[in-house]
Amino acid sequence: MSTAAAVRETIAGTFSGWRLWLIQFLVNPALFGLLMVWLLIPVGTIWQVILNGLLAVFLLVAAVILHAGTMNYFYDRYRSEKVSLKSEFARALHNLLPFLICAAVYYFLWRVINQLDSYRETLPIYIRSTLSASMRQHISLSFLMAIYSGFVFMLRWILLPGLMLPFALSAANHGLRGFGRKGIAAWKSAVLSLSYWLILILAALVGVFAVGEIALWTTDFNTSTYRSELFGFIVRLFFSYLLALCGWMLACSVLGRQCGGIDEARADVAGNPRA
SS3 for 81-115, per residue? Predict the structure, then answer.
């Protein structure tokens, strides 16, 4: 299959399963609301501390079941026509600990990449200072800062997810066995695919970059009213959430297609390139 056909198939497969989309659309805001409630719970008594801990555990488990189960759904969707959401979420709960191990490693690497933000201004300034006067006339500081920001964006939202998510999917499906040969096979099937990286780039642009741009939109404060600003905020929030959800579902779809088709790929002729 050509890369273009693989990309079209993945995008089309993203919007299958309206029940899963509805669950994602409703449960994510509910979990966010519970998170806000959790932040407001005082810790003055032992019962409040216990309630605080129980709600934190519930939020963590619910988030894992939701997103690991979504990965499982797309994994099985490309292998079978009949997929049960109940069984996908149950398998995610069963493999909770391996998935959390992946999440912990991901979070650690995320924090490492975040350290690069402290050089967002100093490094471009230093690089430009080393250039000759003639080159500085054509290369502005804002251009170098944009290049650096793009580099950090690529590491944070494309490269790191692209390298880590196949193992997270394998852990959600196979438990600790997902860190062995199954996980390595899934990882190789994904990272060696051009369509995989193209879809991840699209998902990052839709689910992260576009959301950030919408968040920067502002109304004309000279003519706007409280109602118009509130309405604009609600509209921006709604579309930002839809775009972020689309980006995540795109990433899960391409993960399921690339990692879920390993068995079929093994049956191909040796050396046959995978889209």
Answer: CCCCHHHHHHHHHHCHHHHHHHHHHHHHHHHHHHH
Nearest Cα neighbor of 248 from 1, 27, 3 is 27
Burial label for 62, CB within 10 Å (0-12, 13-18, 19+), is: middle
pLDDT band at 266 (very low <50, low <70, confident <90, very high): very low
For the chain, what is the HEC assignment? CCHHHHHHHHHHHHCCCHHHHHHHHHHHHHHHHHHHHHHHCCCCCHHHHHHHHHHHHHHHHHHHHHHHHHHHHHHHHCCCCCCCHHHHHHHHHHCHHHHHHHHHHHHHHHHHHHHHHHHCCHHHHHHHHCCCHHHHCCCCHHHHHHHHHHHHHHHHHHHHHHHHHHHHHHHHHHHHHHHCHHHHHHHHHHHCCHHHHHHHHHHHHHHHHHHHHHHCCCCCCCCCCHHHHHHHHHHHHHHHHHHHHHHHHHHHHHHHHHHHCHHHHHCCCCCCCCC
pLDDT tens readout for residues 198-255: 999 999 999 999 999 998 887 777 777 878 888 888 999 999 999 999 999 999 999 9
Nearest to 196 by CA among 2, 3, 1: 3
User: In the prediction, which pLDDT does 261 show?
Assistant: 59
